[in-house]
């Protein structure tokens, strides 16, 4: 039976042709695991909030924005072009034509900029703090493996300054920047920073002066370096080594429709460069849309992924553990402490392959890989560890295409019986036929 409406966090939305969100995803919208003080993601979130707010409390903290937002908030307000791939139904969960589950915390930037008192003429803002931090669950259709889950967490940061007569605002930025630089320099763990990014191909906005760009980007970069240092220093300490330790980070060029210039910061950890955070100087367009006066304000924004960092800090082998209700997981963590996760047991996995011919019939959609992932998630939930394509070929005579996917069924918390797996696998196969008209092999 097709539903006419669906409900998210107590609000009702009419469905449309665009609807592709499933009940297993909607069930996660009320969990708010990032708010739990002794959940790894919650612990990491507070460590970062505290660090950025020390000692000035310049950032207003927003931690309960709900995940259903408008297409306008998630994409249009930030200048995403109409044909941006992020907008497609294969990547994003739509509730209907104009509502979706946010794909990033940037969806709330505009509202938070608006809330800052003294920036929108004639409007009393909700806060006097010139910055904000937003933590929230975000949703993306994606592959299935140990590091990918359709829900993960981000922290968004934003900071603005009003231009003042005689460039007083520059003095204020400079002063704060000096504090950041000193904190970095005084730390027993030395941060080694590589930054060869120029403004070539990553241009500044015309309305900003060179000096503003320089100070504002240094303020942004040093703020994020401080966060990275704080987090990884705690990890090094928990591993027993702090003295004389070095931590390498690098800045690379990036592109986001709502920042210019834009960067990404990466940390060198266990022989890999790990991507941590996208950021940049906020485009004036966003500020104008928030109601700010033209030519009067400058600022920055960043968006930090929390789950990958939490997995690494707490040595969590599978992202599904963040969603388990098992006390053997939750009892291992406590507020403010970074410790290594001890696996309570490794339950065996069961491998099943599904092979099928794609439909040639025009009445059926051609299946996107994420659609298959979604079917498996919906049928098996957290009993699926990973799904991967193991074979693909096109018949030389008929031109028909055949795919074979390997599914590993495995629970984090218990044994799964063969009968259970067979039942799940049958459901996956049936659904593929019903929804996409594939011919099973
Ligand atoms: N929202 C971006 C992402 O999800 C990160 C970002 C936030 C980049 C703010 C720039 C400014 O990748």
TrEMBL record:
Give the location in the cell: Mitochondrion matrix
Which superkingdom?
Answer: Eukaryota
Function of the protein: Is responsible for the charging of tRNA(Phe) with phenylalanine in mitochondrial translation.
Q: Where is the FDX-ACB domain?
A: 345-441
**Keywords, comma-separated and alphabetical:** Aminoacyl-tRNA synthetase, ATP-binding, Ligase, Mitochondrion, Nucleotide-binding, Protein biosynthesis, Transit peptide
Q: Which NCBIfam families match?
A: pheS_mito
- Could you say which EC number(s) this protein's record lists? 6.1.1.20
GO biological process, any: phenylalanyl-tRNA aminoacylation
Top enzyme class of this protein?
Answer: ligase
This protein's major location comes to mitochondrion
Protein family (similarity comment): Belongs to the class-II aminoacyl-tRNA synthetase family.
Q: What species was this sequence derived from?
A: Kluyveromyces lactis (strain ATCC 8585 / CBS 2359 / DSM 70799 / NBRC 1267 / NRRL Y-1140 / WM37)
Q: Does the keyword Translocase apply?
A: no
Record-level GO cellular component terms: mitochondrial matrix
- Report if keyword Protein biosynthesis is assigned: yes
Protein name, entry field: Phenylalanine--tRNA ligase, mitochondrial
Q: Where would I find the Aminoacyl-transfer RNA synthetases class-II family profile domain in this sequence?
A: 136-343
Per its record, the protein catalyses: tRNA(Phe) + L-phenylalanine + ATP = L-phenylalanyl-tRNA(Phe) + AMP + diphosphate + H(+)
């Amino acid at each position: 039976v097709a539903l006419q409406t669906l409900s998210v966090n107590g609000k009702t939305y009419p469905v449309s042709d665009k609807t592709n969100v499933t009940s297993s995803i909607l069930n996660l919208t009320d969990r708010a695991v990032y708010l739990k003080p002794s959940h790894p993601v919650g612990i990491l979130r507070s460590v970062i909030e505290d660090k950025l707010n020390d000692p000035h409390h310049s950032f207003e903290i927003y931690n309960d924005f709900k995940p259903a937002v408008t297409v306008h908030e998630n994409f249009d307000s930030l200048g995403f072009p109409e044909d941006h791939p992020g907008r497609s139904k294969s990547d994003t969960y739509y509730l209907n034509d104009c509502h979706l589950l946010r794909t990033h915390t940037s969806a709330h930037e505009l509202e938070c900029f608006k809330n800052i008192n003294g920036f929108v003429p004639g409007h009393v803002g909700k806060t006097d703090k010139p910055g904000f931090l937003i933590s929230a669950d975000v949703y993306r259709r994606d592959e299935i493996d140990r590091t990918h889950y359709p829900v993960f967490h981000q922290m968004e940061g934003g900071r603005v300054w009003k231009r003042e007569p005689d460039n007083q605002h520059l003095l204020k930025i400079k002063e704060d920047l000096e504090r950041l630089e000193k904190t970095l320099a005084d730390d027993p763990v030395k941060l080694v920073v590589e930054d060869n990014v120029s403004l070539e191909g990553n241009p500044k906005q015309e309305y900003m002066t060179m000096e503003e760009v320089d100070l504002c980007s240094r303020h942004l970069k040093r703020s994020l370096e401080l966060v990275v240092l704080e987090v990884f220093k705690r990890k090094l300490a928990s591993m027993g080594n702090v003295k004389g330790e070095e931590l390498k980070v690098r800045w690379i060029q990036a592109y986001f429709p709502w920042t210019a210039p834009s960067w990404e910061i990466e940390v060198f950890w266990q022989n890999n460069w790990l991507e941590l955070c996208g950021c940049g100087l906020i485009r004036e367009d966003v500020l104008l849309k928030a109601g700010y006066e033209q030519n009067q304000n400058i600022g920055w924004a960043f968006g930090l992924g929390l789950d990958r960092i939490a997995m690494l800090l707490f040595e969590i082998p599978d992202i599904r553990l963040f969603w388990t209700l098992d006390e053997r997981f939750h009892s291992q963590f406590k507020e403010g402490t970074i410790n290594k996760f001890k696996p309570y047991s490794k339950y065996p996995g069961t491998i099943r392959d599904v092979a099928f011919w794609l439909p040639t019939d025009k009445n059926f959609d051609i299946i996107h890989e994420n659609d298959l992932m979604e079917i498996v998630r919906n049928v098996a939930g957290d009993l699926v560890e990973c799904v991967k394509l193991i074979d693909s070929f096109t018949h030389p005579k008929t031109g028909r295409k055949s795919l074979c996917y390997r599914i590993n069924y495995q629970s984090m918390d218990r044994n799964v019986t063969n009968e259970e797996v067979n039942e799940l696998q049958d459901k996956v196969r049936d659904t593929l036929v019903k929804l996409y008209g594939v011919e099973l092999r």
